[in-house]
Design brief:
By secondary structure, this protein is of the alpha/beta class. The protein has twelve helices and 14 strands. The protein binds 5-S-methyl-1-O-phosphono-5-thio-D-ribulose.
């Protein structure tokens, strides 16, 4: 498992990010020396995954403050770098009163600590011999250490509950095939990458016991935005009576959003899909709460009705 500071860290003169676009073939750091460079790194997905984006933004503000950048401008460009993950705005709000290096580093360590707690709660939901399916990458790379959905799989593996993981390759940027598979391999967890469209037939064949994913933003009613394709998995899982568990820290909750309809969905460059033809590239979709068996945060397992079970849940260390 990668150490948190290998994934991203704050040095005196730079935010240092492991370039996730190049993994697993190359392990190269990108050094960002201004808040603008951190914002570009978030936009271009050098760093990605909702909690890791938040930590990177906190580091960007701390760097900007130490180097005398205009903080209102720094906040603005970082906030605008990606629209869907609410952790970004949460971390920037947190940094407003205290933009120090220590505070930014505490936000990072707190996120990793939340991951460990939610992973323990989520692993409680799994039974011996579980064959899980996951989408995108909700591992340590996405959270700054340990991971949410992948963290739950790590904990379940340590407890001897996990038999196998199906890893959706996750078109178009292959976060599953490149990043999740790499993390599972490092942990020696049996896994196989599948094309996203293979999930249905594996479920029909009885080879999937649960679907487990992270989230980018969870509305008050439990509607959940996550990587494009999560909604399709939720529909398939419901059809096959397979539970879908969402594992995410309270920093991913947006209780000001009544439901998923108000969650901004990022549209990325069509060139990520093709340059030959016209294309449309929504990066996230919203899974209705009714298709989610449980949402697991560091506080525990939340069940429907989520309006009640999530109410009052706020980020704590
Ligand atoms: O576009 P990405 O790679 O940033 O999307 C990431 C996801 O969809 C993750 O599942 C989500 O951020 C949760 S990370 C713990």
């Amino acid at each position: 498992m990668l150490e948190p500071e290998r994934i991203l860290r704050l040095e005196e003169d730079a935010v240092v990010l492991l370039d996730q676009r190049l993994l697993p073939l190359e392990e190269i750091d990108v050094r960002c020396r201004t808040a603008g460079e951190v914002a570009d790194a978030i936009k271009t997905m050098v760093v990605r995954g909702a909690p890791a984006i938040g930590v990177a933004a906190a580091y960007g503000i701390a760097l900007a403050a130490a180097h005398g950048e205009d903080l209102a401008t720094a906040d603005h460009i970082l906030r605008a770098s990606r629209p869907t993950a609410v952790n970004l705005g949460w971390a920037l709000d947190e940094m407003r009163d205290d933009p120090s290096y220590e505070h930014a580093r505490r936000i990072h360590t707190d996120e990793v600590e939340r991951c460990r707690r939610m992973s323990a709660h989520a692993a409680d939901l799994l039974v011996s011999g579980t064959r899980a399916l996951t989408h995108c990458n909700a591992g340590g790379l996405a959270t700054g250490g340990y991971g949410s959905a992948v963290g739950a799989l790590l904990t379940a593996w340590e407890r001897g509950l996990l038999q196998h993981v199906w890893v959706d390759e996750t078109r178009p940027l292959l976060q599953g095939a490149r990043l999740t598979a790499w993390e599972l391999e490092a942990a020696s967890i049996p896994h196989a990458v599948i094309v996203d469209s293979a999930a249905a037939s594996l479920m029909a064949a009885g080879e999937v016991d649960c679907v487990i994913t992270g989230a980018d933003r969870i509305a008050a009613n439990g509607d959940t935005a996550n990587k494009i394709g999560t909604y399709s998995l939720a529909v398939l899982a419901s059809h096959h009576a397979i539970p879908l568990y969402v594992v995410a820290p309270t920093t991913t909750l947006d209780l000001s959003a009544q439901d998923g309809a108000t969650i901004p969905i990022e549209e990325r460059d069509p060139a990520e899909i093709t340059t030959r033809f016209a294309a449309r590239n929504p990066a996230f979709d919203v899974t209705p709460a009714a298709l989610i068996a449980a949402i697991v945060t560091e506080h525990g397992v939340h069940r429907a009705p989520y309006v009640q079970s999530l109410a009052g849940t706020v980020a704590t260390a």
